[in-house]
Amino acid sequence: MRARTLSEIPLSLDRDGEHPLSVQLADAIRRLIDADVLAAGDVLPSTRAWSEQLGVSRGTLVTAYDQLVSEGYLAPRQGSGTMVNPRLGSLHPHTARPARASIPAHTPPLVQYDLLPDQPDTGLVNTPAWRAAWRFAAARPLAAAPSEGLAPLREQISEHLRRMRAVVRSPDELLVTSGAREGLTLLLQSLGDPRQLQVGVESPGYPSLRKVVSLLGARIRELSVDASGLRTDQLPEGPAASIPDVVIVTPSHQYPLGGSLPVHRRRALLDWAQRHQVVIVEDDYDSELRYVGQPLPALAALDDPDTGNVVTLGTFSKTIAPDIASGFIIAPRRLREALRRTRAILGNPVSQVTQTALANYLASGELRRHTAQMRRVYRQRRDLVQRALADIPGVTVAPMDGGLHAVVATTHDEADVLAACARRGIRAAALSTYWSAVAARDAQQGVVIGYGHLPEPRLRAALAALADALSECASSDVASAEHRNGNATGTTG
């Protein structure tokens, strides 16, 4: 029997996928067995260790193991643990391959390094305060939460915003949501028929919110950005028909390029919105994870809570974990009643247990301590990225003042870079996809990677593989250039 270590088992999850994580885990382990990466008799890592590395609950992994045991792929190990069933060949004959060469050539490469962006490290949140908050919530009588959200949670979010984001709003000005996408959906539905709305989006910008706009049938208007964020000097003027009804911005940390909107642009944006009565949606997705100086004040801090135009979308997915699916929306007085009416019709998607636990966790002060700790951890991992990818020809890493992702722009063909990554088992996002098809001519080439979710040893290995892929592309470009120059010299000679 061979005990397999965590580093030997390439496995990743799509946290935005349509299938539950336990189903994805079972499918991934089944594919590893079918591909002979996991062989009969191999002892799997403990559910506790593996769940910590993957950032999922232990119960999720246990559910996946149980499913595979029932199918005969896995078997309980005498004493403790789980192994790949020693009788695998007789139960599933197709898995008993004589050699790896018999694996079909078209089998896609296994993912060894998941560098997709927007994945926080969820392992360090599991503290006594976190567990106590959930025990407290589980002990409360079950009841439906109010449509606007539990009062204790809204009170704690209000205090959290005052301390961390310089936004002073009463609990009555907040609604609990299940995250930024759900909050944006709620807002657009509250403004009337979304199909009659024109929504301005940053280009490049956050794909998930852009997809929400498209899904609801609203028209998209591309807005230019530069290294400092939204180009307020290029905001549309003129006839009312040319002015968007809504503009979505990421002022504290532009996604994906990373710029922070300067104060003079923030004021210009607010003045423009006031003149044209445009709703400004501030996506405050990871502003507390800032590594240079203190977190910047939210755009809402400069806006009037009664007559202003800024609606702030907040989420705890980056500071705590995506799986809790909790966030909030803040709106000026003129929009609140419409939001409340829509929320009353749709109901609140966040369970009472989750809201109670989150309120208790915030009240303990642990989130502020946890955020400070994670800023230190992420800053160290960001430094690893900068050092690992420095001095590679044709590669530029955008400044990373905060957040969980890095933009790696290249002069190399993006398809070649992604192919070189795939050959090394690296998953990364194509930088060009953050521009819409309409703005594709302006798109930069490169990759967007996430670095926050990987422990340092694993991150070092992933970055070494990425640096090797980028260096391969650089060498290939040099060879191609020399070949072209040689041909040109031969022709002219």
**Contiguous runs where pLDDT drops below 50 for at least 5 residues:** 93-108
Using the alpha-carbon principal axes, give the shape. Answer: globular
Sketch the major β-sheet.
Answer: 8 strands, mixed
Strand count: 16
Report, as a whole number of angstroms, the end-to-end distance.
67 Å
Strand order of the largest sheet: 4-11-10-9-8-5-6-7
- What average pLDDT do the residues reach? 87
SSE pattern, N- to C-terminal: HHHEEHEHHEHEHEEEHEEEHHHEEHEEEH
What would your notes on this structure say?
This protein has 493 residues and is an alpha/beta fold. Helices cover 40% and strands 13% of the residues. A hairpin with a 7-residue loop joins strand 12 and strand 13 (405-410). Helix 7 runs parallel beside helix 8 and helix 7 (180-190) packs across helix 10 (333-346). It is globular, with a radius of gyration of 25 Å.
